[in-house]
Amino acid sequence: MRKLFLLNIVPVLMLFAAPVCSAQEAASPLAFEQFSRKVMAHYPALKAAHADVQAALAREVQARAGFWPSLGLSAGYQESDDPVNVFGMKLRQERFTSSDFEAGRLNTPRHHRDLSGGVHVELPLFDAMQTIYRSRSARAAVKASEAEESFTRMEALLMAQDAFLNALALDRLSAIVDEVHRSAGDDLEKAKDLKDKGMILGADYYAARVMFGDMTRMKNELARQKKAMMVLLNVLMGEPAGTAWQLTGALRERTVPAQGFDELVQQAMAGRPDLKALDQRLKAAGAELSRQKAGVLPRVSAFADGTNNRRDIDAAGGNNFTVGVKADLAVFDRSRSGRVREARAGQERMAHDLQALKDEITRALGQEAARHGALLDNAPVFKEMTADAHEAVALTEPLYREGRKSVADLMDVRRGY
Fold first, then answer.
1. 155 contacts 44 by C-beta, under 8 angstroms
2. Strand 246-247, strand 29-30: pairing
3. What percent of the chain stands above pLDDT 90?
4. Of the N and C termini of the chain, which has fewer Cβ atoms inside 10 Å?
5. Residue 151: helix, strand or coil by DSSP?
């Protein structure tokens, strides 16, 4: 049973649309549209899922072959002095004469050879519903594979959105941190001069240096994350890991219509491809169970054989044919009950897997709905905090220059921003 790839960016995806605003072109630009196309073209799991669909289609062709007649050709050579074989060879070759009835020739015939060629045709009239149930199971397996391919495609697209949006967010955050770090560095340089002149306390200066070190640590950590994110983007696109890109695009806020939790669950149950895949697997298991149960029925087929027998390739020979109908019935098959039990257990397991996936979807939706709600509630708070922090820096800077605030106070305010 497959589970949906849970993305860290799910709440962000709910608040922001995919990046569509092109920024100013730079060397090796990479927009989301180009990135997503590369990901979808490279994604190995999607290619594997497509191969699974082709394999399922091939198995369906094999299953439906039971409706068609079988045709076979045969050829053989034999040489024998066995009385019965020699007698039969001559009869089939139409070379039997009255002298062949002499007792001596019947009991101790000379060796005789036979060249034979034939054709065999068999048409199933009733095969105990085996082909019908195999075809139903194979058709359900094809639908399941197609649904799994659709799920993998959705997974790849979500992963691409997650990676690209995270990369854009890191770029934006890095720009902010770099600006704050630069301003804080300027403040610290000026504070060092003031400290050396004895105009500010050394304690304030060194407290500010500690805060500046924390900012530097954050700046270095973001740089490391950006490098790791660039490697991830290249891996997803199938590009060399060290390829550099300039991401183009911007995060844009959008309003998401509120939906009730029950409505969300209902939409997920109706639209999730992995659920559809498991449902088709359950149908395939049901068809397999029916096929095993039907194994108790007889199998009936019509057949026809045509043969040509001759002593030598260039000699005249005899043509013979046989047509008929045959029926087979397994009166005692000890393994049948075991096969039925195995098929029933497989069907029950698939039903439990389907219910488990539904429960997991409901649980995951509950968690994501709670995170989404918290994000919506906190979004205006974050905006207000950002504006307040910006204003606090603007108000603290003149107070610091007037000597009414220490450099540590200014550094603390910048760090909060």
1. no
2. parallel
3. 54
4. N
5. helix
Unique residue bearing structure tokens 């062949």 = 100
With the C-alpha atoms ordered 252, 257, 262, 263, is the resulting torsion angle positive or negative?
Answer: negative
Q: What is the pTM of this model?
A: 0.79
Contact by Cβ (8 Å): 341, 289: no
Q: Encoding tokens for residue 97? A: 């004469």
Measured between alpha carbons, how far is 289 from 124 in angstroms, rounded to an integer? Answer: 22
* Tokens describing residue 22: 């092109």
d(C-alpha 234, C-alpha 294), whole Å: 54
- Report how far residue 152's alpha carbon sits from residue 157's, in angstroms, rounded to the nearest whole number: 9
Q: Which of 34, 9, 14, 24 shows the shortest CA–CA distance to 165?
A: 9
State both tokens at 161: 């959105």
List Cβ neighbours of 145 (8 Å cut-off, separation of 6 or more): 49, 52, 53, 55, 56, 277
Q: What are the angstrom distances between the C-alpha of 220 and each of 176, 216, 411?
A: 13, 6, 18
- Could you give phi then psi for residue 326, rounded to 5 degrees? -130, 150
> Taking all residues of the chain, what is their mean pLDDT, rounded to a whole number?
87
The C-alpha atoms of residue 381 and residue 375 are separated, in whole angstroms, by 10
Is residue 382 predicted with pLDDT exceeding 60? yes
Q: What is the per-residue pLDDT across 169-216, written as a single tens digit (0 to 9) for each?
A: 999 889 888 988 898 888 888 888 777 777 667 788 888 888 888 899
Give the pair of three-digit tokens for residue 142.
């094809």
What does the block give as tokens for 51? 């191969």
Residue 407 near residue 191, CB atoms below 8 Å: yes
Q: What's the Rg (C-alpha) of the chain?
A: 40
CB 302 within 8 A of CB 120: no
